[in-house]
């Protein structure tokens, strides 16, 4: 029976050079929400018609995202490699707006916080759409899964 979802997600800790409490909180929330509800359906036919659930490990190397996909028992199925070139602007913009948002939460008015949060959500949504597009034909994702994965991709790009 098909079970197209992620049951475990791991980030390559060697990729993450630095993170603060705000970023760590974003990471925890993204992983929690992702595991609570997601749609993740690799397109490739695996041996014995395996079709979920999946364990996923994300890492970045040489400007590419590696998505390691494994069976529920941890046996590797495949690693997809995706160029991150088209995501660079989104990642940079997302970091900038998140910094503004975290500062605003501490000292700005509710109206200012809401304005910044709307901009942050807009960047995040555009990046999620791009991720769905880039994975088309490789992995089927729903929008919320793509949003959470984009958050985790950003965490992998933090350089301090």
Report on this model:
This protein has one domain. Strand 4 and strand 5 (76-83) form a beta hairpin. The model has no long low-confidence stretch (mean pLDDT 87). The protein has helices at residues 21-36, 88-107, 110-135, 143-156, and strands at residues 6-11, 40-42, 54-61, 64-70, 76-83, 139-141. The termini are far apart. The chain is elongated, with a radius of gyration of 16 Å. The protein is built from four helices and six strands, in the order βαββββααβα. The chain has a four-stranded mixed beta sheet, covered by helices on one side. A two-stranded antiparallel sheet has the order 2-6. The chain is of the alpha+beta class. Helix 2 packs antiparallel against helix 3 and helix 3 (110-135) packs across helix 4.
Helix content: 40-55%
| Distinct helical segment count | 4
C-alpha termini separation: 44 Å
Give the number of domains: 1
Give the rounded overall mean pLDDT.
87
- Rounded to an integer in angstroms, the radius of gyration calculated over CA atoms is 16 Å
Query: Which strand order does the major sheet show?
Result: 1-3-4-5
The parts where pLDDT drops under 50 for at least 5 residues are none
Order of helices and strands: EHEEEEHHEH
The coarse overall form would be: elongated
Largest sheet: 4 strands, mixed
Q: Provide the structure class.
A: alpha+beta
Task: Give the beta-strand count.
Answer: 6
Portion in strands: 15-25%
